[in-house]
Amino acid sequence: KTVSTGAITEYAGNYVYQDGSLKFFNHPEGYVDAENGFDYVYQYKDHLGNVRLSYKDANGDGLIATSEILEENNYYPFGLRHKGYNNVVNGTENKYQTFQGQELEEELGKNTYAYEWRDYDPAIARFNKIDRFAEKYEKLSPYHFSANNPIYFREIAGDSLNLAQLFTKNDDGNYVNPNAVKAFQAFAGTKEGKSYLSQFASKGQSVEGTDVTFGTDGKYHNEGIDLAYNTEPLSASDGRDGETGAKQEENGRFTIDVTLGESGSQFDKILDITHETFIHVEGFTQDILDNKKLDYSNMSDFVNERYSKRSRHHVQAKLDQRNKGNTLFGTKGFNLLLNANKKYNGNKTRNQVWNTMWDYVD
Fold first, then answer.
1. Residue 103: CB atoms within 10 Å
2. Which domain of life, per UniProt (predicted)?
3. pLDDT band at residue 235, thresholds of 50, 70 and 90?
4. pTM score, two decimals?
């Protein structure tokens, strides 16, 4: 970018140049300041991705003294910085990806944060362009920021099929969880996976790294149901490597969140995604469609009366497969996993794939 002062800033991946000279480049714990040699700077971030503290071991003694704190940032909820006590302490201020991981642009008096294709003004708590999904949030301004609740929500892409966290990259440009990404790409690239995900997608959405693009708004998207995939280490002691939950947002829409673990072979990860999607996502979706509530009203009385909420989808899926033989998991899920076994595993028979997919904890 070029501003009126004549300064030219160039972004070459993680390397930032100004007027042809390298200013800094990022690393997982912060950035390397290249103005006076190469100084390794660490950054402390809060739960929303805000850079709160920048510091370095200037004298190389392995300890951080207050004199080695470079910068402190404290923010009001909508992004304005506190003034008068959290200025630059030592060194040069770095405004790159400070508030919620976005760059502050002060050129030409803008003082806005660059959120992809929209600039955000923290002084008025509004974007300067209309949200492309504004029709989904009729009760909110099309220029709103984080549903007017930035303490609870972090501003993201806002897609009905939300893959932002799953496809997160580190400062080197690599996926943070490459195994989960590869497995999801494989799942989405199948006929069964693409067909199911299309029901939650917004028109024009695509899955990164694949040729999967959705040409229309999905029927569940139109029913007010959003689907998100995330990944993080799971602490369950019963062998589970995936969790799915659902909630109703303040805007009236429902969000179904799938959390995937980070371990396992490619076939195992695809099995996890298929299980969470075709049993739990489908279970919550049908529950919502039944009466616009999350109350397990689509489960049988037998299941609701005898099993905990965590077990109901599992038990109902097994009962439906045994009694009806046409569950989504047992038909499309089975076919998807047979093909995944051939491609990524290859050593399981048809019966072994079937037994493996139903061998889960109730």
1. 16
2. Bacteria
3. very low
4. 0.61
